[in-house]
Prior knowledge:
The structure holds 2 protein chains of 2 kinds.
Chain A: E1 6-9, E2 12-16, H1 23-40, E3 44-48, H2 57-72, E4 76-80, H3 84-92, E5 101-103, H4 106-116
Parallel strand pairs in A: 2-3, 3-4, 4-5
Antiparallel strand pairs in A: 1-2
Helix pairs in contact in A: 1-2
Chain B: H1 2-10, H2 12-22, H3 25-28, H4 35-56, H5 67-83, H6 87-95, H7 98-109, H8 113-156, E1 161-164, E2 167-173, H9 178-195, E3 199-206, H10 212-228, E4 231-235, H11 239-248, E5 256-257, H12 261-271, H13 286-295
Parallel strand pairs in B: 2-3, 3-4, 4-5
Antiparallel strand pairs in B: 1-2
Amino acid sequence: MERIPVLRMGSLLLITIQVDMHDKLALQLQDDVTERISEWGSTGVLIDISSLEIVDSFIGRMLGNIAAMSSVLGADTVVVGMQPAVAITLVELGMSLPGVRTALSVEAGMELLFGTVPGTQSGPGDEHPQS
Amino acid sequence: MNELAEVVSKNQSQILVDWIRDMGSSVQRPDKIGKEQLEEQCRMLLSSVVEGIRVSGAADLKDAGWNGAREFLEEISASRARQGFSAGEVATFVLSLKRPVFTSIRRELSQSQDKLFETIWVATELLDRLALVTTDAFMTAREELISRQQQELLELSTPVVKLWDGILALPIIGTLDSARTQVVMESLLQTVVATNSKYAIIDITGVPTVDTLVAQHLLKTITAARLMGAECIISGIRPQIAQTIVHLGINLEDVITKAKLSDAFALALQKSGRKVVRETAAPVSPISSLFAKREE
């Protein structure tokens, strides 16, 4: 069965969504992420959706859910690389994903996590985003 | 009907002379259209009307015989719409043809009242329809003009400028409606991606009024930018607008707002860990140097 890989990078989890999300895949991802966080004790989750071009309200809710579940398990979530069309769609659907932090690129997202997640050293970037 | 064709083509030159002579100043408008050009238009119109009556009769303007007159009228009213004539003036141009035509009919058919009445009725119906054609064409030309200008305005008024590496500014000028918000939002988000900018300053100095709808559009744009990982700052809030926002109970608490674009830019610089520093001392004004000399 098709699955979205969940990669481990130290204390972080890296999830890159490179296929069109459908409902089953999203549910499977939700299971995988929570499983991995508790298994590896991750403190940060980075979800890259730069290749995601179509969202519906369900996928939007899944993103919010994954973030909420991660924070319940003690991990910060950053969603990175959202396409303009996807952002507009989510806003028009009335989903502003209030609990989710966002960044423009994987690099910026990493910095955000490095800056706020305890137990990770600071990244090499010359500037440090503050939230 | 035949009488009308006969009378008009027989008296064509007399009608033309009367028409031009009796034209009121509201039709002539020497500031916008020259006398020769007007006379030329009158002559062309009259001859195409005569042609139309002769070939197709006065009953139906959709007949092929009227094509010439119709096209000529549409052309005239389109060009007058662009010159800034009013709809009334353009219609009066055609309607002012009534009097000379009626005069000719009366002169020719005074011996039979029935014929006179019938011919006048046919003529007045015909000229009314011609005036309607003119007005329609005028409206179409105006609407084309308006929609073209709207389109141009829409394209012109949504520039996204890069102020610094990672800092964008979006000066909004004019009222924000749904269609415009869509354009503004799309161009902002696309530029955010293209320039990889973390901060976007939305300057609303040029927005005349902010009501709940405009505020909602702004919040939508800000939320969409936030979803992509960019932070928005609203600047250029005039005192009256600040009052309106509070009176309307619009919640802008989750958004950073600043009075001036410069304040917002300073904040964005600070947030991205930068600072503007003066390299040399402040320039000394002549008056203060005078004071310095006196102290010596």
